[in-house]
Putative GH3 family protein
Amino acid sequence: MSENLEEYTKKVIEEFEVISKDAERVQREVLKSILEENASAEYLQSLGLNGRTDPESFKECVPLVTHPDLVPYIQRILDGDKSSILTGKPITAMSLSSGTTQGKSKYIPWNETYMDGLKEMFHISFAYRNRYSTSFLLFQSHCYFLLLFLCFYPLGSGIVEAQR
């Protein structure tokens, strides 16, 4: 971070507030980008989306599903299948949920796009916390903000498993 903390905080918050003013447009753009990035994914192809990236086709073709519906696809990834099964970009990690729903842990796939979005969320969160919390002022030029601790274990398929 080359700029000072106040400049960084101001810049991130201004950018977030600009895009928040037209949330519907931004959400449509995000959906289109997700669909474009994942158009080749086997899962979306099997639902009949066939490369279409408009919200109407998405609503028409993609049903609401639960995790058990995705388990066969996730298992193939865990078994080492590197094809575009659920996403266009390779799955690089699997997070294991805490198991509070239905009493059983579930694998949650991660890829580069998910990690980029998570980093962006942390930047925005940090900026707002820095703006409104005096405890963040102690850092002045560095932020060490840890929401959760993950241990990474390699799985046989070359994917890493993230566990708390």
Observations:
- The chain has one domain: 5-163.
- Confidence is low (pLDDT under 50) at residues 145-149.
- The helical segments are 5-20, 23-37, 42-46, 55-61, 67-78, 112-132.
